[in-house]
Amino acid sequence: MIHKKTWLSGITGLLIVMMGCQTEEAAEDELPEITAFTNLTLYDGTDAEPVDGVLVMEEGEITSAGEAGVVEPPEMAEVIDLDGAFVMPGLINAHGHVGVSEGLNHGEDYYTRDNILEDLNTYADYGVTTVISLGDFGFEGTEVRDEQYTEDLSRSRLYVSGPVVDGESPEEAVAQVEEAAENEVDWIKIRIDDQLGEGEKMEPEVYQAVIDAAEENGLEVAAHIVERDDATDVIEAGASVIAHSIRDTEVDYTVVRAMQENDICYIPTLTRELSTFVYAERPDFFDDPFFQRGVSSDLISELESEEVQQRFAESESGEYFKEQLPLAKENMETIHESAVDIVFGTDSGMPARFPGFFEHKELTMMEEAGMEPHDILYSATGGAAECMGLEGVGTFERGNSADFIVLEEDPFEDIENTRTIQQVWVAGNQLDID
Ligand SMILES: [Zn+2]
């Protein structure tokens, strides 16, 4: 359930024209600003193939998008020739985090408005124009979310779960759900994980109470799981989103059937696994300018220090997730082939899971796991919006926000071409991404 505020821009603009135009000149100033992008390949975020297209926006919203010749630039439009570039809706990360870490540190001290906004700017720089934060340190994010229904938006859009519900008894957990609902969160997040035997797994009677309380408050539940049977059980209890890969064992008929019957959104977060072990040695991407542009050189130095490498090399969970990653990929592909909605997400924003870069890495890992570029890009645009119930983003449907990216090369030919970002637009505003 997403709280969507009404777009007032159109109405306000009209009132200004009606009340304010004294002279012809003034009236002209108030004419709606229409922009038409031409000479481009257009993917609209649906299951349709890309076409030689035209995209038209007005006051921050898409007014039309489609095949050149069928869609014509309106006469009064400012025309921008994109010189054969590729245009698609901005990426949606359905499992991220904002303002929860700084460098390699993680904790509630970092949950400040400034850090939230900084992460949203970084995501946007990389073309990730919508982020669902599944697990926060408070409710500050709801305020940031409520500010985004403006014509001036110039960062990624945010939806939030608030803190992970982790009450030990049904009563305690239900009270947390109610607090989250009062604070108008978009999702409820729970975690069913014993951390490889180090912790206590949430009990079925607790998550059942959470799911029931969420439903009473018009909210849906996203579940962090590791193990297949926990996924089956929490889906049967009524959860809507599986927020990570099943990694302990192969998926079976029971869990796939449960996903199909309950319209589950399955978020693989393959880069989450990668982040648990990849820093044991210096990864090649440290030399990649696309990585470097979003990460400070101090932090890179810290990550390549012997001490940090040692820590990753000795991490038991790192070892486990490294071993299980191929299985997570296989499971994703089986689930995808079973017509369950794969939804794009990374679990980035946590320490050493870098917003922006990790999303592009995730896209390539999904391809390695066997998904086709079209399916991957759909899972990160229209598919994510539809499955997660986000309104106004993900496709170029008329009235949607003009949130899109301009790529130099075609990602349908090679998924890595999402990295050839030339422009990012949010609410019809071109961002300064350099
Ligand atoms: Zn997470």
Q: How is this structure best described in words?
A:
- The protein is of the alpha/beta class and 434 residues long.
- It has two domains: 32-89 and 397-430, Roll (Urease, subunit C, domain 1), CATH 2.30.40.10; 91-388, Metal-dependent hydrolases (TIM Barrel, Alpha-Beta Barrel).
- 36% of the residues lie in helices and 19% in strands.
- It has 16 helices and 17 strands.
- The chain has helices spanning 9-20, 24-29, 113-125, 140-146, 170-182, 204-216, 228-236, 253-261, 270-277, 289-292, 297-303, 306-313, 316-337, 357-368, 373-379, 382-388; strands at 34-42, 51-58, 61-67, 78-89, 91-96, 101-102, 105-106, 128-133, 157-160, 188-192, 221-225, 241-242, 265-266, 341-342, 404-407, 421-426, 429-430.
- It has a seven-stranded mixed sheet with strand order 3-2-1-4-15-16-17, with no helix packed on it. It has a five-stranded parallel sheet with strand order 10-11-12-13-14.
- It is globular.
- The two termini are 34 Å apart.
- Residues 3-26 have low confidence and may be disordered.
- The structure holds zinc ion.
- Residues 95, 97, 134-135, 347 line the site of zinc ion.
